[in-house]
Design brief:
599 residues; Serine Threonine Protein Phosphatase 5, Tetratricopeptide repeat; Alpha-Beta Plaits; Rossmann fold; 4 domains; 48% helix; 18% strand
């Protein structure tokens, strides 16, 4: 077979596909060796998600010119970039694209030049570059390609082979440059992912096709001594891996970096002056989004809980069933259960937030009352769920994902679509047919069964009865918010106000929201809702109860006390703040109560 001496857009795309597929096949391994910058076990998932965005965005848009193809690849990687390593990779592709400007067909020489741009861009993206990481391997690989071009001409196969040999040496040396890697007995996960990417590309260059390419990398045995890793995640300085995209006319990266760095660490800024991806570890994601909004419009807000991820990753081996839900479920903070929440996003005008992360409940309801823009909520995307499922598959045997009703939101469908894109034989996606505290009780029960060691099949068999027996009741104090949100016609509010009545809303068996009764007046709302709920409870049955309030703590405490005193078989009762998914419609002053029989 003839050797490949150039890469046009089509060949470049096929080479990228081969590289991406090799990383996708390795994501579990990369997760398991991930110990830096924090041992949260998600490097493989983040790299896979970032690279998968390239496949999704370019499969039907293959350009003939190399520079046009790389521009499309760079933009797709930036949009899909996740995690420290993913954002660094996205910036590498941005440099690769800029370095190939004007190049129709890439020769080894122009390829080496573009890779040098990519390595430099990646390094410049970090506020505090660290040796012994993917940056070191990128630099060593790039320098070796430049040396080869300066010494003599090579066809792509020989050229890449020698370059990859240098990247392998650099990879094996990462533990000598970073103490945490040496202590754990692993190489850097991000660097390993990049070398895996190169091996996939080399396979295509060598064979000229994508059919059946294989490497021996997948046969490597994972042997990571996690006992040697500092695992005191509760004392980690920063909790949230926070990301967003900024679009503007002239984003000055230096100024953006200076504004953000005082709030956290692991800062990476990728992209251009018109579109930038921000990654940073912080304790207050809302501050990051607010700062970023000063540089342009902000989208794609994300905040992963690294403390929870570290807990999952440091289980040392796969652990039973993972329970996933969305932030439409209102769950007490004090419970000790493994529940992974994919958040709803919302925005007041041009300012975006991540539900239950960006703002405290008090801040949310204060803004709801004072901001002329009524907040718009957006369901988690299939990509949000896919990334969560891919991550959990590395640390759990199976997944049960339970969500707010399909009649109220497209969240359930997003989760279903995501499961289809993942190996879904061990993923169950369920409609919870409930919301807020009601969904919270259902998810808590599922997580409790998982903690007891129940199997996927056992929990799935029990959930229909758990869902149908869990009830939630909502009393809205001021109907103007549900009208502003478009969930209630204005005339209904007019009539209700005139008659001085308030409906008690509940989710029906099919998940729709409807009236379960009526309260006369809004005064003494805790007593009225308390009596209503107690009438629904069987006196001989034990219950778990959640009482929720929307920025009306005194009323919430009063309602909790009334229910606790009115029923002598309350096994557990919790007081919570209502989240934005319900709060955007319920408004301040509203109360919710959810009850679940204890079997």
């Amino acid at each position: 077979m003839n050797k490949i001496t150039y890469l046009d857009g089509a060949r470049l795309h096929r080479a990228m596909v081969a590289g991406v597929n090799n990383v996708l096949s390795r994501q579990d391994y990369l997760n398991k060796i991930n110990v830096f910058p924090v041992p949260d076990g998600d490097t493989g998932t983040n790299m896979a998600f970032t690279l998968n965005s390239i496949l999704d965005s370019t499969s039907n848009k293959v350009h003939t010119r190399a520079d046009d193809m790389l521009a499309l690849i760079a933009d797709a990687a930036l949009d899909g970039a996740r995690g420290n390593s993913g954002v660094i990779l996205a910036q590498f592709f941005q440099g690769l694209s800029d370095g190939a400007a004007g190049v129709e067909k890439m020769t080894p020489k122009s390829f080496a030049k573009a890779v040098k741009f990519g390595a430099e861009y990646a390094r410049d993206a970090l506020a505090e570059p660290q040796e012994g990481t993917i940056l070191t391997v990128l630099t060593d690989f790039s320098n070796r390609l430049i040396e080869l071009i300066q010494s003599q001409n090579h066809d792509f196969e020989h050229f890449l082979e020698l370059g990859i040999n240098e990247a392998e040496k650099s990879l094996e040396n990462t533990p000598n440059l970073l103490a945490v890697l040496k202590k754990a007995g692993v190489v850097d996960a991000g660097a390993q992912g990049f070398v895996d990417f190169l091996h996939g590309i080399f396979s295509f260059i060598k064979t000229g096709n994508l059919k059946g390419f294989k490497t021996d990398l997948a046969s490597k045995v994972v042997n990571v001594d996690l006992n040697n890793i500092d695992t005191d995640f509760e004392n980690s300085e920063y909790r949230y891996c926070t990301e967003c995209i900024i679009k503007g006319d002239k984003i000055i990266h230096k100024e953006l970096r200076e504004s953000l760095l005082i709030n956290g660490n692991s800062l990476v800024i990728a992209g251009s002056k018109k579109k930038a991806k921000v990654h940073i570890h912080v304790n207050e994601p809302g501050v990051v989004f607010k700062i970023c909004s000063e540089f342009g419009s902000v989208t794609g807000e994300k905040a992963d809980d690294m403390w929870q991820q570290q807990e999952a990753a440091q289980g040392h081996k796969t652990k039973g069933v993972a329970i996933v839900t969305d932030s439409g479920a209102d769950i007490p903070d004090e419970i000790d259960l493994d529940i992974f929440v994919v958040p709803v996003r919302y925005n007041f005008g041009d300012v975006g937030y991540v539900d239950k992360v960006s703002q405290t409940p008090e801040e949310f309801f204060k803004e709801l009352e004072t901001n002329p823009n009524h907040p718009q909520t957006s369901q988690p995307t299939p990509g949000d769920f896919r990334r969560q499922y891919q991550y959990l598959k590395s640390h759990y045997d199976s997944i049960i994902s339970i969500h707010i009703p399909h009649e109220l939101s497209g969240t359930y469908q997003s989760a279903l679509n995501a499961a289809k894109r993942v190996d879904n034989k061990n993923i169950t996606v369920l409609d919870g047919f409930s919301a807020s505290a009601g969904l919270g009780l259902i998810v808590m029960k599922a997580a409790s069964l998982a903690k007891e060691g129940k199997s996927l099949e056992n929990i799935n068999a029990l959930l229909p009865e758990i869902i149908s027996s869990s009830k939630v009741y909502l009393a809205i104090k001021n109907l103007k918010y549900v009208v502003r949100g478009g969930r209630l016609p204005g005339w209904v509010k007019t009539v209700a106000d005139f008659l001085n009545i308030r409906p008690v809303l509940a989710t029906k068996d099919n998940g729709t929201l409807g009236a379960a009764g009526v309260l006369l007046g809004t005064k003494n709302l805790p007593e009225k809702l308390g009596n209503f709920v107690l009438a629904k409870m069987d006196k001989d049955t034990s219950y778990t109860v959640i009482v929720g309030h929307s920025n009306t703590l005194e009323d919430g405490e009063k309602l909790l006390e009334l229910i606790q005193q009115g029923h002598n078989k309350i096994q557990n009762i919790y007081l919570i703040d209502i989240g934005c998914a319900l709060g955007v419609h319920a408004g301040p002053g509203s109360l919710v109560t959810a009850i679940q029989p204890v079997s």
